Amino acid sequence: MAWISSTSTIFNTELRRLCFSYLIPYSRIILYFCNMRIDILTVVPELLEGPFSHSIIQRAQTKGLAEIHIHNIRDYSTNKHKKVDHYQYGGGAGMVLSIQPIADCIETLKAEREYDEIIYMTPDGELYDQKTANQLSQYTNIIILCGHYKGVDERVRELYITKEISIGSYVLTGGELAAAVVADSIIRLLPGVLNDETSALSDSFQDNLLSPPIYTRPAEYKGLKVPDVLLSGDFAKIEEFREQEALRRTKERRPDLLK
Ligand code: 6GU
Description:
259 residues, alpha/beta, Alpha/beta knot, Trp Operon Repressor, Chain A, 2 domains, elongated
C-alpha cells in the first residue's frame, strides 16, 4: 500500500510538473488556434464602434479569443465619388446597395482565408435564436454583411450569401445593430470568454427554459424579502427551487419554448 501511495505521489508530482511545463503553455497555443474571426461589412462602421469596445467582448479580443474586423464597404467602391448605392431598377422609394463594392470586399477576404458562412443581416432572414448562436460559435471564420437603406442588390445574395438572419419581427434602419447582437451572442459562447464556464451553460434558452429569479444583498428591501430557501445554504433545496421557478416562469411567459 505504501508503495502504491508513494508511486502515486511521485506520479502526481510528475504529472503536475508535466502539466505546468508542457500543457499550460500548449493550452495557450491551443486557445490561440481555437479563436474565431468575424468580418463585418457595413456602410456605417461608426455604428459598430461601441458594441465591441467594452466589457466582456473587448476582453475576448484582447485575450485573443475573438477577432472582429469591421470593413467599410465604401473603401472598396471603384466609383470616383466612392458611391455605394443607387436607385432601384423598376422604380420605387429607397436606395439599393450596389454589388461591386460588396463583391470586391468579399472576394478580397475570401482570397485570404476560407469562410464557414457568409451571413446577410435582413428582416426577411431566418429568425435568430440560441440554437443558431450555438452553431455559429463552432465556426472559425464568418462574414456578416449588414444591409442598409432598402437592402442589397439581389445578386449579392445569389452569388455570396450562405445564410440570412433576422433578429426579430420588426424593421431596423440597417443590419448593423442586428450584426452586433449576433456577434455578441456568439463571442460569449467561445471557450474562455466568460469567467465562470458554467454561466453560458446555465443561460436562459440553453435548455429551452427561462432563468429563475435572482437576488443579491440586502436580504430585505422595503419589506421585499429574498426567498428563505436561497438563504438556507441547502444546495439541493436551492437547486430544486431554481428548477421549479424556471419552469414556472417559462410556462407563464414563453409556453412556446416547452412545446
Ligand atoms: Cl437583420 N435588419 C434590419 N434592417 N431589420 C431587422 C433585422 C435585420 N432583424 C430584424 N429587423
